[in-house]
């Protein structure tokens, strides 16, 4: 699987908070080859959107890529051109740790989707995406793509995301981990010289809420394994993450609430959530009630089973890749169901 990585510069980028940067970097990767119609428009482009704290490389891990991109798989690269952007504030795209630190504008999900749209339309020259899909934060932004740019895709597939403002456990853990960093004296109001250890605590909170309960039961069976787990997660976070980046990433979700405009989504949409996801508890009706307000919406709740891991079931594409095939078949020319 050949991966090409590049970046574009988005000039005069105005954030929803009112700040403007003369230039921001939008990093991205592509797989496969664009195929063009007679009019020159790319007809096989798929946009895949990653989750909070991640990057487009999330989709390249074997447990995901092996079920999506190989021969005969739903997004077989012989016939699909896959675009994997790093969300603004993540990966190789502009973020606080690039130099501005706590002076970096507090971006929201609207800003992230705007940057993605500029990448797709202005720089890649794509008018219509075959599919927009994403997991977790990327799933939330998939709902937003359907509202903000309803004529730019033939299909939508949000995964592990609910079309409502962040609330309940999902909101509580975000506030807790942000507060854990901000109240750490070593954070120094974002002007730290070395990573505060509270970043490790923040990512342990993140892991606690996103892993499935049965999965943690299997992994943590003694005080020794619990201590080792916590220590490794903390050490990895301090080594690999940045405190300001982390705060900005989780706070970005606070502008998210697509619930009032679900009827604006005109593209066929298949929402996929997981039964054991405690970050986005769907219950018997939450997701299905939402998709009833989408003109051509369907919902699937993946039952708990072998390979499930709560919210992080999203990393195991074996559990949901067949639904990618389903939405593509549903939206093939001549098969646009209601």
Molecular structure report:
The chain is an alpha/beta fold and about 350 residues long. It has two domains: about 5-165 and about 255-335, 3-Layer(aba) Sandwich (Rossmann fold), CATH 3.40.50; about 170-250, Rna Polymerase Sigma Factor, Chain: A, CATH 1.10.1740. It is built from ten helices and eight strands. It has helices at about 60-70, 110-125, 135-150, 170-180, 200-210, 215-220, 225-240, 245-250, 285-290, 320-330, and strands at about 5-15, 20-30, 45-50, 80-85, 130-135, 155-160, 270-275, 295-300. The chain has an eight-stranded mixed beta sheet, sandwiched between helices. Helix 4 (about 170-180) packs antiparallel against helix 8 and helix 5 (about 200-210) packs across helix 7 (about 225-240). The longest helix has 18 residues, at about 225-240. The relative contact order is 0.14.
Core attributes:
single chain; about 350 residues; alpha/beta; Rossmann fold; Rna Polymerase Sigma Factor, Chain: A; 2 domains; 8-stranded mixed β-sheet; globular
Provide a concise account of the structure shown:
This protein is of the alpha/beta class. It contains ten helices and eight strands. Helix 4 (168-182) packs antiparallel against helix 5, helix 4 packs antiparallel against helix 8 (243-251) and helix 5 crosses helix 7 (223-240).
Mean pLDDT, to the nearest integer, reads 95
* SSE string: EEEHEHEHEHHHHHEHEH
- Tell me the CATH topology of the largest domain: Rossmann fold
Supply the helix-strand structural class. alpha/beta
Q: How many domains make up the 3D coordinates?
A: 2
Helix content: 25-40%
CATH superfamily of the largest domain: Alpha/Beta hydrolase fold, catalytic domain
Shape: globular
- Rg from Cα: 20 Å
Sheet with most strands: strand arrangement: 1-2-4-3-5-6-7-8
How much strand? 15-25%
Largest sheet composition: 8 strands, mixed
Amino- and carboxy-terminal Cα gap: 36 Å
Q: DSSP helix count?
A: 10
CATH architecture of the largest domain: 3-Layer(aba) Sandwich
Domain AB hydrolase-1: 44-281
GO molecular function, one term: homoserine O-acetyltransferase activity
Keywords: Transferase
InterPro entries: AB_hydrolase_1, AB_hydrolase_fold, HAT_MetX-like
């Amino acid at each position: 699987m050949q991966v090409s990585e590049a970046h574009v510069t988005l000039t005069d980028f105005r954030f929803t908070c009112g700040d403007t940067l003369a230039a921001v970097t939008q990093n991205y990767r592509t797989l496969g080859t664009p195929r063009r119609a007679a009019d020159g428009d790319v007809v096989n482009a798929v946009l895949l959107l990653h989750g909070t704290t991640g990057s487009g490389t999330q989709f390249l891990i074997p447990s995901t890529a092996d079920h999506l991109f190989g021969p005969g798989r739903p997004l077989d690269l012989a016939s699909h051109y896959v675009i994997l952007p790093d969300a603004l504030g993540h990966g190789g795209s502009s973020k606080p740790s690039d130099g501005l630190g706590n002076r970096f504008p507090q971006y929201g999900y609207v800003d992230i989707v705007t940057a993605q749209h500029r990448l797709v339309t202005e720089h890649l020259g794509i008018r219509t995406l075959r599919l927009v899909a994403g997991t977790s934060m990327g799933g939330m932004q998939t709902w937003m793509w359907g509202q903000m740019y309803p004529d730019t895709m033939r299909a939508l597939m949000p995964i592990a995301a609910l079309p409502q403002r962040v609330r309940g456990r999902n909101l509580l853990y975000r506030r807790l981990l942000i507060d854990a960093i901000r109240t750490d004296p070593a954070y120094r109001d974002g002007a730290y010289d070395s990573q505060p250890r509270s970043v490790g605590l923040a990512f342990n909170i993140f892991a606690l809420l996103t892993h499935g309960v049965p999965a943690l039961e299997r992994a943590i069976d003694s005080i020794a394994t619990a201590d080792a787990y916590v220590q490794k997660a903390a050490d990895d976070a301090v080594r690999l993450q940045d405190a300001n980046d982390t705060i900005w990433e989780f706070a970005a979700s606070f502008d998210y609430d697509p619930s009032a405009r679900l009827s604006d989504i005109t593209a066929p949409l298949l929402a996929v959530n997981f039964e054991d996801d405690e970050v986005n508890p769907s219950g018997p009706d939450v997701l299905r009630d939402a998709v009833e307000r989408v003109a051509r919406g369907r919902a699937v709740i993946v039952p708990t089973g072998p390979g499930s891991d709560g919210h992080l079931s999203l990393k195991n594409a074996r559990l949901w890749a067949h639904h990618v095939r389903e939405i593509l078949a549903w939206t093939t020319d001549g098969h646009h169901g209601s």
